[in-house]
Design brief:
Layout (H helix, E strand, L loop, with lengths): L8 E2 L9 E9 L4 H11 L3 E5 L10 H6 L3 E4 L12 H19 L5 E2 L8 H9 L3 E3 L3 E2 L10 H8 L7 E5 L2 H16 L3 E2 L3
Parallel strand pairs: 1-6, 2-3, 2-8, 2-9, 3-4, 5-6, 7-8
Helix pairs in contact: 1-6, 3-4, 5-6
Amino acid sequence: MYDTTDTNVITSSIDPNRKSVILTFDDGPSRVLEPILDILKEEDVPAMFFWQTKLLHPKRPWKRVLEEGHFIGTHTIKHPELTKLSYDAQMKEIALSKEQISQTTGSEVKYFRPPFGRYNEDTLKIVAELGLSTVLWRIAAIDWELKDTPEQIIANVVENLEDGAVILLHELKQTVLVLPELIREIKKQGYSFKLL
């Protein structure tokens, strides 16, 4: 479980009318984006995608992401650890990535996720200046470490479920493999899915 006392950062969002969670995917747009979208469509689940703009080739199915009701946020250009960068270098990574997504998709970018979940005062100042909201997570699936034991991804999420939690996943093959079962297990626990 990830927790922060920082009021400038979103890790959960409670819906007073229903028990719900928010699925998020980092590090796209990747080659497995299409299968992820197929599963989300099949299961009728909305999600948030945080993209590195160095990967945002025009051929990636970003239109489909938006048409099917998902959100696209920025995850910087090249995924650096922002706390090791100067204010100006951070500004470039965040502002240019926001601009590139907006230019490519024609839609406004409202959400930002710092790479590795690391940020500092400069980051928060830049994000506020750019009109973005910083989104971290409450539950990390640790999917990036579980290539050989993808079933553990499900346990990592389901055993830590709580109302309003933002769930951190990545656009990875092992995540795609367990995503249908993960979604069904979350639904079995009485949760629905929403966006921020």
